[in-house]
Amino acid sequence: MTNKTPRNKAGVSRRTVTAGLGALGLTAGLAPFNIARAAGPLKVGVLLPRSGYQAGIGQDCQRGVDIAAGILKDLGYPELEIVNADTETNVDVARSRAEKLIGEGAQLLVGAFDSGQSSAIAQVAEQKGIPFVINIAAAPPITEQGYKFVFRNFPTAGMILRDAFVDQKEVFELTGASPKTAVFMHVNDTFGTAMAGGIGAVMPKFNMPYKILETIPYDPAARDLSVELAKAKATGAEILLMVSRLNDAILLTREMVKQRWTPTSVMSMGPGWYEDQYLKTLGKLSDGPISYVPWYDPNKKLSKTLETALAKSSPGVNLNTNHVYTFEALLVAADAYKRAGSTDPKALADAIRKTDIKDNSSIGPGISFDAKGQNDKIVGGAIQNRDGKLVTVAPKSAANAKPEWPLKPYNQRS
Amino acid sequence: MLGRLTEGLSARTLILLTLLLAVLLAAPFFASDYLLTVLILILYFAYVGQAWNIMMGFAGHLSLGHALYVGLGAYTAAALYVHYGIGPWIGLLVAIPIAALAGAFIGYLAFRFKVGGVYFAILTIAFAEFARVGFDHLAWTKGSSGLFLPVAQYSKNDLWHLRGQPVMFYYVLLVAVVAAFIGCRALLQSRIGYFWLAIREDEEAARSAGIDTFRYKMIAVVISAAMTSFAGVIYAFYYNNLFPEQVFHISRSIEIILGPIVGGVGTLFGPILGAFVLTGLAESLTEGLHAIGIDIPGAKQVFYGICLLFVIMALPDGVWPWVKRRLGLSERAP
Known about the structure:
The complex is a heterodimer of chains A (414) and B (334).
Chain A: H1 14-34, E1 42-48, H2 55-66, H3 68-74, E2 80-86, H4 91-103, E3 108-111, H5 115-128, E4 132-134, E5 150-152, H6 157-175, E6 181-187, H7 190-202, E7 211-218, H8 226-234, E8 239-243, H9 246-258, E9 265-268, H10 276-282, E10 290-294, H11 301-313, H12 321-340, H13 345-353, E11 380-386, E12 389-394
Helix pairs in contact in A: 2-12, 4-5, 6-7, 9-10, 12-13
Chain B: H1 2-5, H2 11-30, H3 33-58, H4 67-84, H5 88-112, H6 117-136, E1 147-148, H7 166-189, H8 191-201, H9 203-208, H10 213-239, E2 241-242, H11 244-247, H12 250-263, H13 270-291, H14 299-314, H15 319-326
Antiparallel strand pairs in B: 1-2
Helix pairs in contact in B: 3-7, 3-10, 3-12, 3-13, 4-5, 4-6, 4-10, 5-10, 7-8, 7-10, 8-10, 12-13, 13-14
């Protein structure tokens, strides 16, 4: 008699494996039927892009989740049961993960760093009537759709640009500087192009003292930016206005050193120049650039608590936007749960709508939401690299240091 | 008509096809919302895989830029809806010619100048990238800030405007998959289909036999592009937001081709089975890793890659030819 399903030594046949996989898939699909909403801690589904091309940022956001439990407990908030899900930097996956988390009993969702993924999750949350608190995503339309269950504690793209120019003016006022010319370099990817368009549209409204002599777009994946920087230097502009990523920020700084050009200031309106890797890679050469970005108020009590907790859980990592805003999304969830006294999603959404947290970490008067679910009171900050650390120099209400101006020449740093 | 479509299919094949269709028709009544979302993804990939299969599986030309046609369909229909309130089905009538024209242009460039093999693949990538960069700067479609379709909580399904619950999209895609399957089978059984297969096997020989290879390759690329644009329209109205970085990205094109490659390139059931295997595998891995407490970012992708590697090594012709043999289906079955 022939054995139609040959078995290996462990007694596992191909048919067994197939059947096992099928059963697993079936279990995955049908599992939600067996799970009832139980009383107990609030079940929060956290969706972040922890793999894929946004993995680095998603994992950084995750640090904000990892320190949340202890801090929230110390602040007297009820316990949260956090269930993590990886969106794999993919809109399809973000949507299906959201469905799955809700099916498994998540009573509130948090995420998802990216506007496209957040938008996909928002639709599921709205359809199911499950509150969704967005940690980071700047596309304005997300809170313009008339959603009842979607809340965003992060500035929109327009707010980010507005605050960047307001803070620049404040820095000029504090330092007595009045630069007349700037050269604008930006990455030509989606983010860089959007920012460049936004800056072009918003800047005229702010009557800035400087005018942009030249705009130089470049490829974020470029291995050599010597030509682009030489072009920027040749304009003779006083300040270098930047929208960049991490690798190109490092490359450009090295080029400035090589080409012996120190602009009066490097003013960044995006990531790169304040990131840990930039500070660690360049050491003394990293000092001086000012980044105008959504940030936290270092003078607030909660910020100090977050810094301490992060130093313990992730030594050597500076507290940043990703940690703070992800933590605050969970803070909103815990606060709503405490006031609602219930895990009922509708009661939670009503409670979130009435949020009024004064003891928060991000810059501004606190966390509250307008009728559209947007925290419209968040304010951006200006941060400067100083001895491998980051200090906040504007707005005055959140500053813990005065801005240093002009940039110390690169050839005078030892 | 029906007789012609079922011609060459054994009774067992017909019974299995009917059973599968019945299961798929009934699935929304039993599946959880999560499972329904997964099934929608499977049907989406089955459909676009079938459209891509015309290019590669039938006509033998590797396209690595099919995200272009998805994106063109999605953006055309979504922009018409957002700016002029034109419904998706009317938008589709505009989207299809645009995608077909784009396909024809790429095809003309490639086939006229004898660009084939990997060079044709690179050309298709290039056009998808052009589109990505172009749409990043196109203010009418909101550039890189993303085009958002208005959404609301829907209690009823509005098929005419494709505004409604996931179950509506499920059935629309199911109809599309069935139609694509029947259409592709009809094409394969027609003269065009035989010409495509001849071109795929040996283009020089096909030309020597009197086949106008340029013409039939152009037909393949135009049909494939037009079919793919329909998937784009569904994508736009299902997700309600479009970003050039996501829609036209090369990873999207790779996702499209994985199903048919795993299922069996050039077979009619390959893209469908491939979509089931890949999406099912991905979801099972997520569930499996979660069940054994592994929460390491990227672990799923590693296991996924290993599984794919094994599938491709063990079944180099794809899963469908193997399944067909195991099920004892007739040689002439799809």
